[in-house]
Design the sequence.
């Protein structure tokens, strides 16, 4: 495997800026890697080789002219989840409903990446409209986990996480509504970050659940994630939910944390995230991670957040309700799929036929749940009650953060399960997000960092670190310190152990 493919994003940016290597060479190396292994992994829905090489050439021209880099990641390749509008490039959200749609504008995240000189390789696979925990709900087939091609890479952003683990890209962007960045990060041995809600613009992000959706960085190291975080974050007047506040100093925190000293940091262990339903190997990995934090000087305390026990049912009322409203825009009248428009049918008939053909089973399930929860006579009993639980969860976080700096838990109760194992059992699938959902409901920051491999099956396990809203830098400091200590203890990085995949085409 090429050294360019193995390098971190920070290392690549430094090599490009010093002219040790060109951005075109870096982009081509990753495009070659995609051509080599993506037939097996299926991380990408669309590879924009022409656009990527053109963007890389512009970076090289700037470097040759002696101009300062557009950003600390100028020239570094990135895989973009196919839920962000990208001008002139197919944006499908993993759905037949938007097959072939080429948006006329860029999402704010897309625009900021381009302005920063980041090279967008293409669009990654995802559960349809971000509804799922395994990327099996994509209308274009499942993505596979590079650690074991028979297993899921997480969801909904499995394409982004798999592209990192397969060394097809050093950086990726995902979205996290109930864990769709962190859970894929956990099961693929990569870093996934959900910033504070409103910390990254949602303009041009095709909405699933507007009060929960949050874009965030995905990477193979904590520092790389922090560098990407600072590029995409910041106030956006085009997004009414965007927070008008300074971007937390996440890069400085990651660099500080790498020194390995957590003296004075209070870490709360959430007692609700353990016990029945948790894989023993996951719990052992978590306990070892907590012990490592203690060795670094952190004070460890147990914290009870009793309302977290109700997060899963509350989420599966709030998110489908908002999905029911948001997905009503796909009406076959303006853009996207249109079925049955033969001149003899009414608009209502065309709309019904299109939605029947265009939406997959999971999307239909959630639309029906949400529509029922919002219906007359049931709104207060279901949606209203779920919002009250949401308030209680936020209060539990506030109470916890009054006594600790960050909270920690396993990211997900199990390692990656086999493709097809849970498709017939929606509740089993939903439980993959058991630990991640509370942070979405409260809107605070959370991330997953690899905590090694399970001693049961040799698959990656993630450590979740949660911080108060707008205090994202706290979790980066803790994550970077843990990452450095973990690698020193192992003698290597977690991601270095992923199978090479050469010649593994299926």
Sequence:
């Amino acid at each position: 495997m090429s050294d360019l493919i193995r390098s971190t994003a920070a290392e690549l940016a430094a090599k490009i800026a010093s002219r040790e290597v060109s951005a075109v060479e870096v982009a081509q190396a990753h495009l070659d890697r995609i051509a080599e292994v993506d037939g097996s992994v299926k991380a990408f829905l669309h590879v924009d080789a022409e656009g990527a090489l053109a963007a890389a050439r512009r970076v090289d021209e700037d470097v040759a002219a002696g101009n300062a880099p557009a950003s600390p990641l100028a020239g570094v390749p990135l895989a973009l989840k196919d839920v962000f509008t990208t001008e002139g490039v197919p944006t499908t959200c993993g759905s037949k409903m938007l097959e072939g749609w080429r948006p006329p504008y860029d999402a704010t995240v897309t625009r900021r990446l381009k302005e920063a000189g980041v090279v967008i390789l293409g669009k990654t696979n995802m559960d349809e409209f971000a509804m799922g925990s395994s990327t099996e709900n994509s209308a274009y087939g499942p993505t596979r986990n590079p650690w074991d091609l028979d297993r899921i890479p997480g969801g909904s952003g499995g394409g982004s996480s798999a592209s990192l683990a397969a060394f097809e890209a050093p950086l990726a962007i995902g979205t996290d509504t109930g864990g769709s960045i962190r859970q894929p990060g956990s099961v693929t041995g990569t870093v996934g970050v959900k910033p504070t809600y409103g910390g990254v613009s949602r303009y041009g992000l095709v909405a699933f659940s507007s009060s929960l959706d949050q874009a965030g960085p995905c990477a193979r190291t904590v520092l790389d994630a922090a560098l990407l975080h600072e590029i995409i974050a910041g106030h956006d007047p085009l997004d009414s939910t965007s927070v008008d506040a300074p971007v937390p100093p996440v890069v400085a925190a990651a660099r500080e944390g790498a020194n390995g000293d957590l003296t004075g940091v209070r870490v709360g262990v959430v007692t609700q995230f353990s016990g029945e339903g948790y894989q023993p190997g996951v719990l052992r990995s978590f306990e070892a991670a907590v012990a490592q934090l203690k060795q670094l000087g952190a004070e460890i305390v147990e914290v009870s957040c009793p309302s977290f026990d109700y997060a899963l049912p509350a989420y599966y009322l709030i998110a489908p309700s908002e999905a029911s409203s948001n997905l009503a825009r796909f009406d076959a009248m303006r853009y996207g799929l249109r079925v049955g428009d033969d001149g003899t049918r009414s608009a209502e008939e065309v709309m019904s036929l299109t939605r029947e053909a265009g939406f997959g089973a999971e999307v239909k399930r959630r639309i029906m749940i949400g529509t029922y929860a919002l219906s007359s006579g049931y709104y207060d009993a279901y949606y209203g009650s779920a919002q009250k639980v949401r308030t209680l969860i936020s209060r539990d976080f506030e109470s916890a953060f009054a006594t600790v700096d960050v909270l920690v838990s396993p990211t997900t109760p199990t390692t990656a399960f086999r493709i097809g194992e849970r498709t017939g059992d929606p509740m089993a699938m939903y439980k993959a997000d058991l630990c991640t959902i509370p942070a979405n409901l409260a809107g605070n920051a959370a991330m997953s960092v690899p905590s090694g491999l399970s001693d049961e099956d040799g698959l990656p396990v993630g450590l979740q670190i949660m911080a108060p809203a707008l205090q994202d830098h706290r979790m980066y400091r803790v994550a970077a310190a843990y990452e450095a200590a973990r690698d020193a203890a192992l003698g290597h990085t977690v991601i270095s152990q992923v199978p090479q995949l050469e010649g593994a085409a299926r």
